[in-house]
Structures are given as C-alpha cells and as structure tokens.
Amino acid sequence: MPSEPSIGYEFSQADLLEAALTHPSFESASGHNQRLEFLGDAVLGLVVAEQLYRLHPEAPEGELDRMRAGLVNGRVLAAQARSLGIDRRLRVGEAQRRHLPEPSDGMLEDALEALIGAIHLDGGLEAARAWVLKQFGAAIAAAHTEARSLNPKGRLQEWAQARDPSKMPDYRLITADGPDHAKFYTVELSLAGRPLATGTGSSKQLAEVAAAEAALAAIDSDKAR
C-alpha cells in the first residue's frame, strides 16, 4: 500500500501505513491500528500543545487547554481524515461494513491518530511534528480567536483581570424553576459587588454563559458610546 499525495507523507515502512489504515475488524498480517492510535493521540496532543504554548505566551493554562480541546476533538479529526481520503482507504471487516457501510467519525478519528503514530515511528518526532503542523497549522493559528469567541466567560474574566486582577466575575444562582428533568436556571453576574447582567439557560453553566454574553454586550455598548 504505497503512500499517496493526499496523505502528504512518504513512508519508508509501508507496513506502518497499512496498519494505520486497518480497522480492528479487518484481519491483516500487518495488524490493525489500535496501538498506533494510542501513540498518535499522544504525539498529536504534544505537538498541538507545544505550538499553542509558543504562539500564545500570555495565554493562561485554561485558555490553552480550551484551544487544544477545540483542535483535537473527534469531529475535527474525523473531518480532517475525510479531507485526506482516509474514509475511502480504511480497511474494514466485511461484517463491520455490512453493519456500517461508511466509516463512523470515531473510526476516522482513530485512523488519523494511528496515521500520526505511524509517521512518528517511521520518521521520528520531527517528521510527525512537520506533518501535524502542515495539516493543522491554519487551525492552530486561528484557535485563539475562536476560543475567545466561543468562551464568553473566559473573555469576561480576561477583561476584568486586565483592570483589577483581584476582582473576578461572580455568578450567583437566583432561581431554578421547573421539574427536575426540565429545570430552567437564572444566574446573576456581579463584579466587585456590582450586578452586571443576568442570564438564563437549561443548566446553571449555560445560564452563566448567557450572563457573561450579556455583560460583554453591555461593555461593548458602553465602549461605542
């Protein structure tokens, strides 16, 4: 099974590529991709974390963690696997294929991580790093902006700390209405004892996010005046 341009890496050990693209349901002399997936998951996490650390020297640990989680989640990895044609090349057992004609996101995520593990074994960490950065470089570069837009609580906390590190947003549950299986929560957000906004949602966490979004909108409105 030779390398293809869509993969973006030329293997010297073709059996590694074959194993990476073999689902456990498929019997093969070269084995399947579970062990490679274990290795590739660690390599991917390391490379992405290291790049985020270098690109964002001022970002706190929590924000770096959110950015990494957004980059290496199953949906993102499955989409990247499809863009490389892995969904068409993955070898799957006949019984599994009858049950699931197209590879699931989980299967594709595992195969992509196995491919990274295979590249690491074939060419070393630098080869794996170069490949990961080639595939994910643009997304890594954009992760900071996306993480901020998707995390209003983090953005509000940054805004507050920039003005007074001793003052943190405080979220207080006001009400939790409705039956246990369908509660509706209302949260009040304060800063330094001064109420800024309220938010509602189907969970306390979602209500806090809504309150942070409302507070940020009020802050932006004040800036525009």
- The dominant shape is elongated
Spatial sequence of strands, sheet with the most strands:
1-2-3
Order of helices and strands: HHHHHHHHHEEEH
Low-confidence stretches: none
CATH architecture of the largest domain: Orthogonal Bundle
- How many extended strands? 3
- Termini distance? 64 Å
CATH class category of the largest domain: Mainly Alpha
User: Would you identify the CATH H-level superfamily of the largest domain?
Assistant: Ribonuclease III domain
Mean pLDDT: 88
Strand content: 5-15%
Structural class estimated from helices and strands: mainly alpha
Walk me through the structure:
This protein is mainly alpha-helical and 225 residues long. The protein contains ten helices and three strands. The protein has a three-stranded antiparallel beta sheet. The radius of gyration is 23 Å and the shape is elongated. It starts with 13 loop residues before the first helix and ends with a helix.
Can you summarize this structure?
The protein is 61% helix and 11% strand.
Keywords for this entry:
2 domains, mainly alpha, Double Stranded RNA Binding Domain, 225 residues, 10 helices, three-stranded antiparallel beta sheet, Ribonuclease iii, N-terminal Endonuclease Domain, Chain A
Set down the secondary structure blueprint.
Elements: H1 14-20, H2 34-55, H3 61-71, H4 74-83, H5 86-89, H6 94-99, H7 105-123, H8 125-150, H9 152-163, E1 170-177, E2 184-191, E3 194-201, H10 204-224
Antiparallel strand pairs: 1-2, 2-3
